[in-house]
Amino acid sequence: MDTLPAGTLMQRAAAGLARRCAQLLTDRFGAVYARRVLLLVGAGDNGGDALYAGARLAARGVAVRALLLDPDRAHAGGLAALRAAGGSTVAAAPGVVDLILDGVVGIGGKGGLRPTAASVVSAAASSTASDGGRPILVAVDVPSGVDPDTGEVPGEAVTADVTVTFGCLKPGLLVGAGATRAGLVDLVDIGLSPAVPPVLRVADREDIRGWWPVAGRESDKYTRGVVGVATGSSTYSGAAVLSVAGASAGPAGMVRYAGSAADYVRQRYPSVIVTESVERAGRVQAWVCGSGLGTDERAAGELRTVLAAPVPVCLDADALSLLADGRMQDLLRERSAPTVVTPHDREFTRLAGFPPGGDRVASALGLANQLNVTVLLKGDRTVVASPDREVWVNPTGTAALASGGTGDVLSGLLAALLAGGLSGVRAAVAAAYAHGMAGRAAAEGGPVTSTDVAAALRSSVAAVLA
């Protein structure tokens, strides 16, 4: 702002916002001209962005109306531009609206929507579009009521179909409840060059392809990595089979299974080397431990042996339950090799002593620091956090993965990536990414089970690496 003419950044933002709205109107209604757009305008620059975008749409023949929540504090320049382009103000939402622009509260807002604003948003969203459907709702920079820094939604908030954000992605659009409220997120480049490191990173396909261990001409089954799987039991044999399935889809050259479900694993995967215990398994480059293991003394002994091994470890399910009472957490903190824990919210609560809450990034970072581990906090937008405060969010999550046993597949794949030489953070991020893609692929065939995800994992990995 110090180096550009006044209002330059706002005009860039408004231009990108108007362009995206025009595209949405064209895609749905076939044209921009004569469509009906309602601006919900709060005080400050967020409302100014909406007003200037509305002015650009009005200049293209759109019937633009602005509902000012605080007329005395509306952006004067934006309101003048709207009126000059043929737009006008209204006191209430019209009955027919094709697109709504949420310019109520921007990135400076805290807390949920105030009652008056919430009522206005609800009334506008209840309007009917000219084709008989509901209006398209576009949020300006961030859905009003969503905390832009954390994704927390502490009260009433807008649920957008599309959020057009400016300059950089805000964490609140990517994690927690905010990600659900944001819909499809479009980033408009307005020429900012952030001078600070990001607080959150989002993996893309190129990241995963660049990290994934690939066998070379000189590779053999040992140099590619050997992954040990200490999961399952006679009661929970499926956990063993599913975690071995995940491990087998990764880059490791050999899988060793250690546990009382050995017969089930042998029948399903004859190439896997099976033994009855971790101690007898032989040398591995990484372990996964926990899923279906149980919480009795035998299981605790297996976990202790795994934690004592000088190799990377992925801990899931029953291993986390065994850690929750604190008796083995010193072993965890003292490990020099990478350790990754993969809790869902209830497991996180048992480990940390409190639920993740609205700020999932801060919660994951806190547990990572507390236990000296990398934390993969499962969810629709899985968060990966390390003790050195590196944080990633996975963009491929899907509700289809909310099914028993899918986490077993994830932890097996993650351990194979650790055995292949990836760091704890990269292994966790890459595993979550590929696992999410497998969940999406499995969902194309209907309701998803963990077996479906395991079956889709190999082809999904191949597609990511292609």
From TrEMBL:
UniProt keyword Nucleotide-binding present: yes
Q: What is written in the cofactor note of this entry?
A: Binds 1 potassium ion per subunit.
Q: Provide this UniProt record's keywords sorted from A to Z.
A: ATP-binding, Isomerase, Lyase, Metal-binding, Multifunctional enzyme, NAD, NADP, Nucleotide-binding, Potassium
GO BP annotations, alphabetical order: metabolite repair; nicotinamide nucleotide metabolic process
Lyase in keyword set: yes
Residues bound to K(+) are 46, 102, 144
Pfam families in alphabetical order: Carb_kinase, YjeF_N
Protein purpose: Catalyzes the dehydration of the S-form of NAD(P)HX at the expense of ADP, which is converted to AMP. Together with NAD(P)HX epimerase, which catalyzes the epimerization of the S- and R-forms, the enzyme allows the repair of both epimers of NAD(P)HX, a damaged form of NAD(P)H that is a result of enzymatic or heat-dependent hydration.
Its name, as the record gives it, is Bifunctional NAD(P)H-hydrate repair enzyme
